[in-house]
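Quick one: structure for this chain?
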Amino acid sequence: MSSSRSEHVRRLRQKLERELGRELLETLDDPSIVEVMVNSDGQVWLDRLEKGVEKAGIVIVSTRVESLLGTVAAVRGGVINADVPILECELPGYDARIEGIVPPVSRAPIFAIRKHSSVVRSLQDYRAAGELDATHRNALCDAIRDRRNVVICGGTGSGKTTLANALLLEKLRLGSPAQRIVILEDTLELQCRGENVVSLRTCESADLARLVRATLRLRPDTIVVGEVRGREALEMLKAWNTGHPGGITTVHANDAGAALSRLDQLVQEAGVPSQPQLIAEAVDLVVAIERTTTGRRVTEVIRVEGYERANGFRLREV
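Got it. Here's what it folds into:
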């Protein structure tokens, strides 16, 4: 049975390569391209590291896009159709994630493939590239060494995950080789080559909130959440605040203040009132990164020093 399943998956992956075609396979192999997007009109758009988003001059017919998404779903043991119109998973055989959508949610089948970084950059690499000043670098190193909880914020494509990988690399450099790091994600993107690392990803029956609760029984020293987007924020903050310091997460927000407000909104999705005091106690540092015309840049590193009902969060810029 196992051999039969393996052969079935192998054939599906061969089918996937045929459906991707030479042009898309070349974009996946190009290290300068970080995202490949196909819109409902079949136009292919590329996001390049140096140039940003540009039209590729490639058009893919909707039947081919639909077939490709169906094959990806089949490799993953699922389906994508009118009843299950959204596909979120790793792209089989590639170091990338794919988000696919079909009618009736979209007018025609579409997808976006986000490639994972092939190289883990260090904080020193950011410093050498002029994307991180010395004061900010020292503050981040101190936070990792002292096992502070760090939230990375930024917009879409700003480089939050890549910076999180750099902090994980720093955690391995400065921490004990035996430290147990548990990483929770919707799709596997974070890279941590430590000796005692557990990586978990969500599925239909286990969302991030459920994974955080399960993680507490895995004896973690540190809990890392790839991106906090919902009610798992409450479980994560409570865990960070009760014996599991040194956490790292990312959140979609443009600056430190907006990141803390966003966390509070997500906490309330768990059906509880606003929890600014919990956030102030659990989050030690907020790092903002943005994408500019010349690359990515860390714009601020903020220490969270408390919360006052009258004045809100007490923040101090590093």
